[in-house]
Amino acid sequence: MDRIILKGMSFYGYHGAFEAENELGQIFLVDLELYLDLSEAGETDDLEKTVHYGEVFELVKEIMEGKPVQLIEHLAERIAKQVFSHYNRVLETKVKITKNNPPIPGHYEGVGIEIVRKR
Q1: What three-state secondary structure class fits 33?
Q2: What is the pLDDT of residues 18-35, one digit of tens each?
Q3: What are the residue ranges spanned by the domains of the chain?
Q4: Region 84-90: what's the mean pLDDT?
Q5: Architecture of the domain made up of 2-118
Q6: pTM score, whole prediction
Q7: 15, 44, 49, 98: which one has the fewest Cβ atoms less than 10 Å from its Cβ?
Q8: Catalytic position from the list 7, 49, 67, 99
């Protein structure tokens, strides 16, 4: 299946289970893949036959920079649901959210989650 990829979207938010995360905030990285048939868009050069990734970015931004929640799993579910509710062409979506600097001890590039949802 074809896909649209939005990789490395960066947002500052106050999400997390720890008080420090809610007070100080942090950067969240979001990767999003939308699975759909892009053949008609490719043949016709018609924006209406695909998904406008600028609009998708704004949808993700609204969630990630919006009301704080405890779990990035919840943010990912909200993103997947919003994508499906706004874009009927999307049959499957993969959402990955990474925290580069969570307030936990250790050395790593980041911690995160990835979900895959099908319509």
Answers
A1: strand
A2: 998 999 999 999 999 999
A3: 2-118
A4: 97
A5: 2-Layer Sandwich (3.30)
A6: 0.95
A7: 44
A8: 99
